[in-house]
Amino acid sequence: MTREQGLRAALRVTAVLIAVAAAIDPVVTRMRPAPQSVVVVRLASVDVTSVERALSEVLPGANITVRSPGAGRLPCAPGESCVAVSDGSVDVSIPDDLTAPLSLIHLSVAGGSNVAVQSVGASASQHAAAAGTVRVVMVGTGMAGRRTELRVTDGSATVGSATHDWKADGDVTLDIPWWPLAGGPRALRVAASPFEGEASALDNAVDVGVQVSSERAAVLVFDARPSWASTFVRRALEDDPRFQVEHRVGLGPALAAGTAGGRLDSRALDAAAVTIVGSPESLSANEVSLLERFVQTRGGTLLLLPDRAPAGPAARLFAGRWTEHLEATASPAGVLQASETLRLAAASPFDLVLGSAKGRPVMVLSPSGNGRVVVSGAMDAWRYRDVDGGTFDRFWRSLVLQSAAASTPLTISFTSSITRPGTAAAFVVRHLRMDPVTATEVLATATCGDHASAAIRVWPSGQNGVFTGTMPVEGDEPCRLRVSIDGGPSAEGGVAVTAGMTRSVADVRLKLERAATRSGGVVVNAGDEGTVATALAPRMSAAALSHPVRPMRSPWWMFPFVTLLGVEWWLRRRSRLR
């Protein structure tokens, strides 16, 4: 074979190979870097451009997208690498579908004098006929010698106020009395008046929700025989519109006096939130068994006012060993005064000591089954009720009211007492009864402002008598929920709704920090953006996409194919071959 013949053969074979490869159409997989995308979420009321610029410098080549929260939700989709820049002034809900780490950059408050309302605490329920109390914790920096004025407002009306003169920086706790304007869910705003030159006014106000109700706590007072202690406690409660008191006192073997609903039976105990028993040592075995069921099964609160050391069947209602002590003069027994006391030898780790005398517990709350038993060992405190400035009445009203909140037969509790429009408020319905049943019909209806009532679906929680559900919040008016059980007992609750709800800066920061930590992200201060870049680097370098390539589909292969065949044809023609 001549040299020219070999060249013609090589050209022909190469062209054929190109044609065969084009017919087979092979696939080649390439790994190419995925687009590096980072979402920066602005959760601040101040300019964050400097932080965004710093992130661009430490993440060269990354595609940085800036977003603002919408509808009160963190705008971060599953799989996105998000960096939240927050000064604590913007609160958002954290989505449950975050699959990528969320990093957080804190913006610090500029230096200088500043007052921050760190937290606000208020009872979720407040009676319309009594004043409430809001507990406020403030933090002051550079405030020595200054005065801060605090106001509690319900809408545009001021319902409470207080002032504080700063002697030194640090934390301070104030209890501010306030008076309800109207019933139903109310949104209260606690605000510290800003002063000239304050470093930041973003942390001066906090909103809190309160349910104002006119419902009266049901109290049953039962005396197996006349008792001075229970008589004066009952009078203190009857003089207060927050209580509905039923009573019965035994005067003889077949003689009793009291109200129609004052019997000691299952029906009366089902309705009572708190049962007060005077002279418990005179109770019969059947009455003691009924009271035990009220506490342990029904989940009620039993308040015992003994006249002497525990004896008889009622002794099993008393936890621990109690001994009687008599003194010539009265001495403090907790906040009360008494000369005749019962003292507990030693409180258990589960007991809550409400008052002591001579270093020994005299007023003790002990858990028992689903409920609790309170023993008052200040047996003759009623004798000194007029020498303590009304402490006797205030103590018993406060104790019974707090106990009733935990033992009311039918209650509705919301996860949060204040929310924004367009959200869903989660709630728990708890029904306490002497004889739990397995089948219960629960009817729940919700009304938001002027909107029509809507039925709400509730679900059993797995615990007898406890149901859960969520109530859609429509509009910016308060939403009320009414629940009835088996067509009988009913209760009403609700949530306050405000579009501009303000939470404390500390709470917002803590919420975002927990979300970042839970997702595997980092929490840094502004100026430490490099740590965020380091945390994102493994995820961004690992983000590569497989890219299938079909090289023979390129139209450029036509050029070498035609060229090879053309040269081979030219060589053949030059040699006078076909």
Summarize the structure.
The protein is of the alpha/beta class and 578 residues long.
Give a verbal description of the structure:
- The chain is an alpha/beta fold and 578 residues long.
- It folds into five domains: 3-27 and 550-574; 32-108 and 526-544; 114-213, C2 domain (Immunoglobulin-like, Sandwich); 219-407, Rossmann fold (3-Layer(aba) Sandwich), CATH 3.40.50; 410-497, Immunoglobulins (Immunoglobulin-like), CATH 2.60.40.
- The chain is built from nine helices and 34 strands.
- The strands form eight sheets. Strands 16-15-14-17-18-23-22-21 form an eight-stranded mixed sheet. Strands 3-2-4-5-33 form a five-stranded parallel sheet, sandwiched between helices.
- β15 and β16 form a beta hairpin.
- The longest helix has 22 residues, at 3-24.
- The radius of gyration is 37 Å and the shape is elongated.
- The chain starts with a helix and ends with a helix.
- The mean pLDDT is 87.
Structural class: alpha/beta
Write down the Rg: 37 Å
Q: Just give the CATH class of the largest domain.
A: Alpha Beta
Beta content comes to: 35-45%
Spatial order of the strands forming the largest sheet: 16-15-14-17-18-23-22-21
The CATH topology annotation of the largest domain reads as: Rossmann fold
Largest sheet, if any?
8 strands, mixed
